[in-house]
Amino acid sequence: MKNENTILYHFVAFLTIATWGTTFVWTKLLINNGLSPVNIFTIRFLMAYVLLLVFSLIRVRNHKFLWFANGWKEELKMMGLGITAGSMYFLSENAALQYTAATNASLIVCSCPLFTMLLFAAVYKSERFNKMQIIGSILAFAGMAIVVLNGRFVLKLDPKGDSLAFVACLSWAVYSLLMKPMTGRYPTLFLTRKVFFYGLITALPYYFIEPGLPPAEVLMRPQVIANLLFLGCVASMVCYLTWNWCMAKLGAMTATNWVYFNPIATIIVAWLVLREQITGYFIVGSALILAGMYLSDKRNKETEKSKA
Predict the structure, then answer these.
(1) What pLDDT digit, counting tens, does each position of 215-239 carry?
(2) Which percentage of the chain shows pLDDT scores above 70?
(3) Which residues contact 238 (CB under 8 A, 6 or more apart)?
(4) d(CA 218, CA 215)
(5) Which is the most buried residue in 16, 58, 118, 189, by most CB within 10 A?
(6) CB atoms < 10 A from the CB of 102, how many?
(7) CB 297 within 8 A of CB 257
(8) pTM for the complete prediction?
């Protein structure tokens, strides 16, 4: 039964990352319709927060509704979750794409499992990595690089853009680190709601830099409505819930390794929707990613058994 549950957790993590891997298509379509990256982020997070808030209020009924964490220090940690998984991550990633190539940004942002592993090893003695995990991580990273580069091994460095992409990478790694102790103290629904709330609040100052909202005529377009509904309801509300749930069940390290699968999902969707060709590099890279994830997860299971 435990093994079946673990397979379920991995499958849900896979579906979550696969969904996130498709968001670039829908985001690009919204940008083409005149919405800015900060507009898209604000609308999708606001939509997700309102839906989760309503669902939470209905769910608790006669029970006491939890608005705040236990103490101001815990609430500050909730703000940290909202910043690292919300405003800082999305705004730095979107800003990076304005200065550096998409290939550079993808390589840097999708390397966050490596930095997550280093952060966990520095903070938690029990999370110190071993040879099997190192080999698995290197294989997965190499596979991700092969998939992203797709045979074009020419990278043009841009200090500003690449630095912003690195900020996004570290932001998600810190989010995983902050979430680890929180999953044992608070329900997934509450944690996810807090991520959306503080992500929204901390993104608002950005409007002083890039003011303006899209006109109502643009927001009423069927294509815009459909894409925003997908990004807000599915890619934000549902996926953040399932991702935080997977981190609670699998552990932040194991779940974060699925980020390596992101470019695979993106290319598969591009093949299905945009009819882009799948090359041999994609197949080799995907095989390396899966092999690396298998080795890392196998070692994590062995560590858990030794502790039991």
Answers:
(1) 888 889 998 999 999 999 999 999 9
(2) 80
(3) 19
(4) 6
(5) 16
(6) 12
(7) yes
(8) 0.79
Give CA–CA dist 208/190, Å, rounded. 30
CA neighbor of 164 nearest in space, from 63, 116, 93, 113: 93
Query: For the residues of 128-178, what is the DSSP string, one character each?
Result: ---HHHHHHHHHHHHHHHHHHHTT-------HHHHHHHHHHHHHHHHHHHH
Of 11, 1, 2, 12, which is closest to residue 305 (Cα–Cα)?
2
Q: How far apart are CA 33 and CA 280, in angstroms?
A: 34
SS3 99: coil
Candidates 161, 147, 7, 20; CA nearest to 96 is 161
Per the CB < 8 A criterion, the answer to whether 127 and 252 are in contact is no
Phi (first) and psi of residue 155, to 5 degrees = -115, 125
Q: Is residue 101 within 8 Å of 248, Cβ to Cβ?
A: no
Q: Over the stretch 193-215, which tens digit does the pLDDT of each residue have? A: 999 999 999 999 888 887 788 88
Chain centroid offset of residue 49 CA: 17
Nearest alpha carbon to residue 45 among 236, 205, 189 = 236
pLDDT band at 128 (very low <50, low <70, confident <90, very high): low
Distance CA 188, CA 242 (A): 9
| 210 secondary structure, DSSP code | S
Q: Residue length, the chain?
A: 308
What is the full DSSP assignment across 251-300?
-HHHHHGGGGGHHHHHHHHHHHHS-PPPPHHHHHHHHHHHHHHHHHHHHH
50 vs 55: CA distance, rounded Å: 9
User: How far is residue 45's CA from residue 83's CA, in Å, rounded to a whole number?
Assistant: 12
Q: How far is CA 151 from CA 55, 111, 227, in A?
A: 47, 19, 32
Tokens of 205: 């100052």
pLDDT at 304: 46
